[in-house]
Amino acid sequence: MKFFIDTASVAEIKEAAAMGVLDGVTTNPSLAAKETAPYKDILKEICRIVPGPVSAEVISTDTDAMLREADDLVKIADNIVVKIPTTLAGLRAIKSLTDRGIKTNATLVFSPTQALLVAKAGATYVSPFIGRLDDISQDGMQLIADVVLIYENYGFSTEVLVASVRHPIHVVEAAKIGADVVTMPLKVIEQLIKHPLTDIGLEKFISDYKKANKQ
Fold first, then answer.
1. How far apart are CA 68 and CA 82, in angstroms?
2. Which of 5, 74, 117, 131 is deepest in the core (most CB within 10 A)?
3. For residues 86 and 114, is the Cβ–Cβ distance under 8 A?
4. Which one of 14, 75, 83, 204 is the catalytic residue?
């Protein structure tokens, strides 16, 4: 499973990259709005830090405008992946970009039928938003299971990128199901390594070592 960080913070990305487990980055307009630098400058810096895929989202709602935005985004760096909303206009944009060899990430996916359509259109990644489904009392992880099964049934090459991840259990369940990628905030990446018994054990080892060296 590949680990992406979901942020536009250069500082957070550097911290995650230093852990040695970071494979890519996803961003969106809401995350970019939290930063002070211009979005394109942020993307350039992120692409310099992370050699893996960096998803950058268009904000247009019609196909032609999406394609113009995509053309601008891919000029930033070779590892830019264009995030496209999962709408009819977005579907047409994904097909056009795929035909031109431009990688895409179909975002705001909430149903198996949406995931099926974007795979048929050739999306590089599909991003089901599991946390937002959980928020409205739907089972986000069931969506991941459905999409993984459908893609396996028909041999789609589109990678399942689990998004809107809220906690480590989402990561564990996604890994058990067989999702290709999980993107998450820095705090969730950090939580993955935490365990109280590890902390207790380490504290005891250090304490016992100090006692032994007093003899």
1. 11
2. 5
3. yes
4. 83
Residues composing the chain: 215
The H-or-E segment that residue 177 falls in is helix 168-177
CATH number of the CATH domain containing 60: 3.20.20.70
Position of tokens 């970009």?
Answer: 97
Using DSSP's 3-state secondary structure scheme, residue 105 falls into: strand
CA distances, 100 to each of 3, 74, 104, 173 (Å) = 27, 12, 11, 35
User: What pLDDT is attached to residue 215?
Assistant: 56
Q: Active-site residue 103, yes or no?
A: no
Question: Domain count of the chain?
Answer: 1
Q: 36-74: per-residue pLDDT in tens?
A: 889 999 999 999 999 999 999 999 999 999 999 999 999
Q: Could you tell me the residue range of the domain that residue 144 belongs to?
A: 2-212
Report how many helices (DSSP H) and strands (DSSP E) the chain contains, helices first. Answer: 11, 8
Which tens digit of pLDDT belongs to each residue from 181-199? 999 999 999 999 999 999 9
From 132, 199, 198, 141, select the one nearest 169 (Cα to Cα): 141
Residue from 175, 213, 189, 209 nearest 1 by CA: 175
The pLDDT of residue 208: 87
Contact between residue 33 and residue 212 where contact means Cβ atoms under 8 Å apart: no
CA distances from residue 23 to 43, 188, 214 in whole angstroms, order as listed: 16, 15, 45
Name the residue with tokens 């100090």: 210
